[in-house]
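Consider the following input, taken from an annotated entry for Diacylglycerol kinase (Thiothrix lacustris).
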Amino acid sequence: MADSGNTGLTRIMKAGQYSWQGFQAAYQHEEAFRQEVWLLLVAVPLALWFGDNGIDRALMIGSLLLLLIVELLNSAIEAVVDRTGMEKHKLAGRAKDMGSAAVTVAILNVILIWLFILC
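Applying the prediction step yields:
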């Protein structure tokens, strides 16, 4: 990747700006991401309430944050694949399917962690 020429605080501020743009784009264009953000907003207070200790709370909230991370990466994969063309290609389909599978594993991770801690 080419050097942007930004260093120090400017580089950090630019990185923050790009990250915020990514969050906005995901929220605007990805229904699953919106649903997961709302789930996070509801579930974090529940995790703080139901978690018996810091480890429980960290696992419960961390699993939700991990789900958002995986969803962002899956959305990025889908955007890149769609950008390269709309014709069907087995590798493009495989990439999208693997991204979807990663989201499914992250959802299962949330469910299992919450079940283990709450039951």
